[in-house]
Give the backbone structure.
Amino acid sequence: MLGFLFIYFIGKYFYDLAGKFEKHKWGYTILAVVVYYAGTVVFLIPLFLIGNFVAPDSVEGIDDTVVGLIGIPFGILSNVLLYKFLKWKWEKEAAKVETIEDIGVIEELR
């Protein structure tokens, strides 16, 4: 149930961000959910491989719920990084569009 809440809020933030910059809302919402799950998998696989080499018996007894709880911060971190990157990129693109319209206009006349 906790996972559904994360997916909802992750999707909502990316949907609002894409709407603010007039991008494809549902495309970036789906991208955010995929990045959440990919972030958990990408970070958990090396974590458990290292854990298997260090203490082979400790990894086998871990419950699936615990694995899910361990993966949550990595998925959220992946989404935060994607959110910051997209926001930075789109703000930079929006700034370029505004400056193109102002070419030839004297600062004092604005």
Notes: The radius of gyration is 20 Å.
